[in-house]
Specification:
By secondary structure, the chain is of the alpha+beta class. Among the domains are: 2-194, P-loop containing nucleotide triphosphate hydrolases (Rossmann fold, 3-Layer(aba) Sandwich), CATH 3.40.50.300; 198-290, Elongation Factor Tu (Ef-tu), domain 3 (Beta Barrel), CATH 2.40.30.10; 391-476, Alpha-Beta Plaits (2-Layer Sandwich). The relative contact order is 0.09.
């Protein structure tokens, strides 16, 4: 059967996974009466909840006499490690662009990787049936983006289609019949070349491992594209590291190919196929699986270095161990190193003492997803504030800069620009109208300046602004950037919070807890209305007397407390604070719980 390998890349929420759903349906991958969940490719619980693609996944459809392997890639730059590896498996890309928004930062990030690999893109302008769609403008912006990213003449001469993924149609003309996705299938077959690896069927077997999985029955599973030769079940092969060191020799126990949403056992894989194999015990991502006669590994795509680091430690608060089952540092260490093995964009380092671990990654969202997965698995952790990783460059100490693209109502654009270019040391790059009453702002802002900014941004824009960010490059260190201005309210007692005490504390600031919440000494229970920290007693009840007077027994009515989610909590804390994460709770606390230690620290400060 004729073969095509293609990846679909897009910005978050541009309709990529919905389009893949329609491709699967119209290719006959599902039975007519089969019940299929919406966004079927988003199989992970977090992906469904957040509406984003986190893990790169492959699927396969048959159209006429051609098998098309489709790779669904993450749209967020924090998961760029997935994108960089997965693009090495395909021969073409479909770039999906929202006809109203145009190419966005994550589009730019993934497209630059695809163009650098020499892949010729197909552009699909999605959601053209929306009332605010401007497909012609979006198409011009895509061309400008390709030119700015250094695309060659062949890549600039890209074909394009107009589509609506939700309605299930794609046409070469804007006023086409709007019936089905046949135009997209046909364009993929005509434009994407056959795998060049198919010409190497008679060579020794080689395959570069790009993703790592596990199965409770067959153990470790590696997925990749066969670069040359053939592989049969039962064959003995070896694994080579990036530098050519022999890792292990093993017998292949299973070969699986992607068929629709599932995988099917096959007896033989040939050059060009994207398959998963089992039987190894040590081989991992970026290793070369090859015949015993091969001694040179395949080139692995380089991964961009991490930009932030977060310290994961054991939960040593007074409430530790009441909620989760996995609380020991040994168990946390094993889980983190297991994550780093399959996710090459994450680096783990032990700290002196062995009670905490420095985890380096690409962004706050990537860290947040890892922590959320661990708390759902029963872990209890203490998490530090993210720190930006600096480097020694040509200009001395350099720090990472991100390109922030912001769509905001005209009324709030002044406040946003003032915040970004003032204390946060950003530089305004572009400002232009983005539809009726909207402004698009593009700024280069140090990564340090954007940590903790998102909550403030939503407040400044009354929740209507949209902020997208992507790694841009490095710049000389810009000096100190102030963090959170407000102080916090710190509990000075252990026990359960009393409604009467919280009611009296409301004039001091915003509360993070409600009545009967468990608190302990050093726990942060609210935000102070002033810049200094304040120790308070949330357990202080009302003194009872036998005197009754009008107004003394009014019911206590508390303001609804502010509930911080995981990313907001991590971004909110200062350097001397921690986030306590358990399966059912997210608490903030001071790093120093001991009152004598806290008093000593405040004196030295």
């Amino acid at each position: 059967m004729d073969l095509r390998n293609v990846a679909i890349i897009a910005h978050v929420d541009h309709g990529k996974t919905t389009l893949v759903d329609e491709l699967l349906k119209q290719s006959g991958a599902f039975r007519e009466n089969q019940q299929v969940a919406e966004r079927a490719m988003d199989s992970n619980d977090l992906e469904r909840e957040r509406g984003i693609t986190i893990l790169a996944k492959a699927t396969s459809v048959e159209w006429k006499d051609t098998r098309i392997n489709i790779v669904d890639t993450p749209g967020h730059a924090d998961f760029g490690g997935e994108v960089e590896r997965i693009l090495s498996m395909v021969d073409g890309v479909v770039l999906l662009v929202d006809a109203a928004e145009g190419p966005m930062p994550q589009t730019k990030f993934v497209t630059s990787k695809a163009l650098a690999l020499g892949l010729r893109p197909i552009v699909v302008l999605n959601k053209v049936d929306k009332p605010d769609a401007e497909p012609d403008r979006a198409l011009d912006e895509v061309f400008d983006l390709f030119a700015n990213l250094g695309a060659d003449d062949d890549q600039l001469d890209f074909p394009h289609l107009y589509a609506s993924g939700r309605s299930g149609w794609a046409d070469a003309e804007l006023d086409g019949p709007r019936k089905d996705l046949n135009a997209l299938f046909q364009l993929i077959v005509n434009h994407v070349p056959r795998p060049r690896q198919q010409k190497r069927k008679d060579e020794d077997f080689r395959m570069l491992a790009t993703t790592l999985g596990a199965d409770p029955f067959v153990g470790r599973i590696l997925t990749g594209r066969v670069e040359s030769g053939k592989l049969k079940v039962g064959a003995t092969v070896q694994a080579l590291s990036r530098v050519g060191q022999k890792i292990e020799q093993f017998r292949v126990t299973k070969i699986q190919a992607f068929r629709g949403l599932g995988q099917q056992d096959i007896e033989e894989a040939i050059a060009g196929d994207i398959v998963s194999i089992a039987g190894m015990s040590k081989a991992t991502v970026s290793d070369t699986i090859c015949a015993l006669a091969v001694d040179e590994p395949l080139d692995a795509q380089p991964i961009d270095p991490p930009t932030i680091t977060v310290t994961f430690g054991i939960n040593d608060s007074p409430l530790a161990g009441r909620d989760g089952k996995k609380v020991q540092s040994r168990v946390i260490r094993e889980r983190l190193f297991k994550e780093a093995e399959s996710n090459v964009a994450i680096k783990i380092k032990d700290t002196p003492g062995g009670e905490a671990f420095e985890v380096s990654g690409r962004g706050e969202l990537q860290m947040g997803v890892l922590i959320e997965n661990m708390r759902r698995e029963g872990f209890e952790l203490s998490i530090s504030r993210p720190q930006v990783i600096m480097r020694d460059g040509e200009n001395g100490l350099e720090e990472p800069v991100e390109e922030a693209t912001i769509d905001v109502d005209d009324d709030y654009s002044g406040a946003v620009i003032e915040k970004l270019t003032g204390a946060r040391k950003g530089e305004l790059v572009e400002m232009k109208p983005a539809g009726v009453g909207k402004t698009r702002i593009v700024a280069h802002v140090p990564s340090r300046g954007l940590i903790g900014y998102h909550g403030e941004f939503l407040t400044d824009t009354r929740g209507t602004g949209v902020l997208n960010r992507v790694f841009h490059g490095w710049t000389p260190h810009k000096g100190p950037i102030p963090g959170r201005r407000a102080g916090v309210l710190i509990s000075m007692e252990n026990g359960e919070a009393v409604a009467y005490a919280l009611w009296n504390l409301e004039e001091r600031g915003k509360m993070f807890i409600g009545a009967q919440a468990k608190v302990y000494e050093g726990m942060i229970i609210g935000e102070h209305s002033r810049e200094n920290d304040l120790e308070v007693n949330p357990l202080k009840g009302k003194k009872l007397t036998n005197v009754r007077a009008s107004g003394t027994d009014d019911a206590v009515r508390l303001t609804t407390p502010v509930t911080l989610n995981l990313e907001e909590a991590i971004a909110y804390i200062n350097d001397d604070e921690l986030v306590e994460v358990t399966p059912s709770a997210i608490r903030l606390r001071k790093r120093y719980l001991d009152p004598h230690e806290r008093k000593r620290m405040s004196k030295t400060a």
